[in-house]
Design brief:
Low-confidence stretches: none
Number of strands: 4
Strand order of the largest sheet: 3-2-1-4
Number of helices: 6
Distance between the termini: 18 Å
Shape: globular
Strand content: 5-15%
Order of helices and strands: HHHHHEEEHE
Number of domains: 1
Mean pLDDT: 83
Largest sheet: 4 strands, antiparallel
Structural class: alpha+beta
Oligomer: single chain
Helix content: 40-55%
Radius of gyration: 15 Å
């Protein structure tokens, strides 16, 4: 079933969000810090190479797509918290998405970072980056796909762990 429909029709029912254990929370924090350091020290190309090469040894096994999406949103809160602490005043969509996508991939959740180009005249930014989980925007509203034309996905293929 398409995740859009699951999110649309599950609004009346309470979904159980799996807890984020301390060891996985620590993995999210360490991965976020590590990716930001790689980006600052070595630059964009090295950070992209590292993102593509992240492997998970102990994946989170969540079968329900709605629960997986809500779990990823919980991870997003912590990942963006780390980014905001380390980059006070200089947070952009690329840093948030890089950190989040790396954290999700490290947990075994199939996430992709999407680079989009401005599609509408009323949009201020020329480029924007967001993270998708099973082709549904995670750290942006679903309308982001209307305002930006997709240029590239990182990683290019949809990984299923």
């Amino acid at each position: 079933m398409n995740l859009y429909f699951v999110l649309l029709f599950a609004k009346d029912r309470a979904a159980k969000v799996p807890p984020l254990p301390f060891r996985r929370l620590l993995r999210v924090i360490v991965t976020s810090v590590w990716m930001l350091l790689i980006y600052r020290i070595y630059g964009l190309n090295k950070a992209m190479d590292r993102l593509k090469s992240i492997r998970c040894k102990d994946p989170v096994r969540i079968k329900n797509p709605l629960s997986e999406f809500l779990y990823a949103r919980r991870v997003m809160v912590w990942s963006q918290f780390v980014v905001s602490l380390l980059n006070a005043g200089k947070i952009d969509s690329f840093l948030r998405s890089l950190s989040l996508c790396a954290s999700l991939k490290k947990l075994g959740i199939p996430a992709q970072m999407v680079l989009g180009e401005k599609n509408d005249d009323h949009v201020i930014e020329n480029l924007h980056v967001w993270v998708e989980l099973r082709h549904v925007p995670l750290n942006e509203s679903w309308e982001v796909e209307w305002h930006f034309r997709e240029i590239k996905r990182i990683p290019e293929r949809f990984d299923v762990h």
